[in-house]
Specification:
- Pfam families: DAGK_cat, YegS_C.
- By secondary structure, the protein is α+β, with helices and mostly antiparallel strands.
- The protein folds into 2 domains: 109 residues, Probable inorganic polyphosphate/atp-NAD kinase, domain 1 (Rossmann fold, 3-Layer(aba) Sandwich), CATH 3.40.50.10330; 169 residues, Tumour Suppressor Smad4 (Sandwich).
- The chain contains 7 helices and 18 strands.
- Strands 5, 6, 7, 8, 9, 10, 13, 14, 15, 16, 17 and 18 form a 12-stranded antiparallel sheet that branches. A 4-stranded parallel sheet has the order 2-1-3-4, sandwiched between helices. A two-stranded antiparallel sheet has the order 11-12.
- It is globular.
- The relative contact order is 0.17.
Length: 297
């Protein structure tokens, strides 16, 4: 097999250096070319590569895939293999890519292909895409708050800090008017959160969409009404103080076409903060099975 490794050199520790990763991959009989995901790697892609490896966190995965979706990385679509090195690793966990690096690499020669939808958003100055979620309310406020803090290096401590900040956000964020249509049906109302999700997890590893189908051509819209504020706050408090990772049962509506607007400016696309124009409607649709990932059998 022949692969091209796109690596975020700032992710992980010394065991995740270029030389160590190349050594581990080569040990499994995979011929591999290296590029830093932080540099202009598009011109270095080899057309005879069997697949592309992305080593980094969710942000790196998104940045690499956007290069393919926008055509900047050429016309060929390669199957993608992930080596998760971030904090939450929501994308890889949704694909059940977890465990030791050597075990993940060893699974590639006998892999299974998982097809993966991509969300598409109209209403910005250019067409936008998402892999994880597009949403409004408490999670973009959390993201903005975290940018103001000095985050710990340890991933578990970083997730704990994010949960503590989220708990405070939930208690104080004012519910906003959301105008929402899903496949022509009106779900408008006052919400603390509206997330158009493509995978099961969001933010600091919270599974809010356990029934997500990764290549089924549908999105899941997860809503948190003001009436759920106390129970969701209690759930987050329990996550902070307990080692158990129970899922929180929120209403989930499946759909293929979404029109949404939000009362304030707090919005995000995956891990990118954006400002939503007051009253501006966004049209969300799905690119069915746009990507292919190598996943363990």
């Amino acid at each position: 097999m022949k692969a091209h490794l796109l690596h975020n050199p700032k992710a992980g520790d010394k065991d995740h250096s270029e030389s160590e990763l190349m050594k581990k991959i080569s040990a499994h009989g995979i011929k591999c070319m290296y590029s830093s995901a932080k540099k202009n790697w598009c011109k270095d892609l080899q057309p005879d590569a069997d697949f592309v490896i992305i080593a980094g966190g969710d942000g790196t995965v998104r940045k690499v895939i956007l290069e393919f979706l926008t055509g900047r990385a050429g016309d060929k679509r390669y199957p993608l293999a992930l080596l998760p090195m971030g904090t939450a690793n929501n994308i890889s966990r949704s694909l059940h890519i977890t465990g030791e690096e050597d075990d993940i690499i060893a699974s590639w020669p006998k892999h299974h292909i998982q097809q993966f939808d991509v969300g598409k958003i109209a209403g910005f100055h250019e067409q936008m895409f998402f892999l994880e979620s597009f949403g409004f309310g408490i999670f973009p406020v959390l993201m903005a708050s975290m940018k103001q803090l000095e985050e710990p290096d340890d991933p578990e401590e970083k997730i704990k800090l994010a949960l503590e900040v989220l708990h405070d956000v939930i208690d104080h964020y004012q519910a906003q008017e959301c105008k929402l249509q899903i496949d022509g049906v009106d779900y408008s109302g006052q919400y603390l959160m509206a997330e158009v999700m493509n995978i099961r997890s969001i933010g600091p590893g919270l599974n809010l969409n356990g029934d997500a189908g990764l290549g089924d051509g549908e999105m899941e819209i997860v809503l948190l009404g003001a009436d759920k504020r106390k129970s969701f706050s209690a759930y987050i408090k329990d996550r902070i103080t307990s080692s158990s990772h129970k899922d929180y049962d929120l209403p989930v509506i499946r759909g293929k076409n979404v029109r949404i607007s939000w009362g304030d400016e707090h919005a995000h696309i995956d891990d990118e903060l954006i400002k939503s124009a007051d009253g501006k409607s966004y049209i969300v649709s799905i690119l069915k099975r746009e990507l292919e990932f190598l996943v363990p059998r």
